[in-house]
Design brief:
The chain is mostly helical. The chain has a domain of about 35 residues. The chain has 2 helices and no strands. It is elongated and about 85 Å long.
C-alpha cells in the first residue's frame, strides 16, 4: 500500500514539474521563436545616424611594428 501511495505522489510531482516547465516555456514563447529565427513579426530596423570619425594624429597613431610581442617566462 505504501508503494502505491509513494508512486502516486511521485507521479503527481512529475506532472506538476512538467506543467511548470510548459507554463514557463509558453510565457517566453515569442522570445524563443525569435531566437530560433521563426519570428512571426518582422524585426524592426533601427534608424541609422551619421557619425563623424576623426583619425588619430601623428603622435597618437601607433604602428603595428611598434608593439613588441610578449613572451611567456619559462
Amino acid at each position: 500500500m505504501i508503494h502505491i501511495l509513494a508512486s502516486l505522489a511521485f507521479s503527481l510531482v512529475v506532472v506538476a514539474a512538467l506543467g511548470l516547465i510548459a507554463f514557463m516555456l509558453l510565457q517566453d514563447q515569442d522570445k524563443i521563436m525569435t531566437a530560433l529565427g521563426f519570428s512571426i513579426e518582422p524585426a524592426q530596423r533601427t534608424t541609422r545616424h551619421r557619425v563623424r570619425v576623426r583619425t588619430a594624429g601623428r603622435w597618437q597613431a601607433a604602428s603595428a611594428t611598434a608593439a613588441r610581442p610578449w613572451r611567456a617566462a619559462a
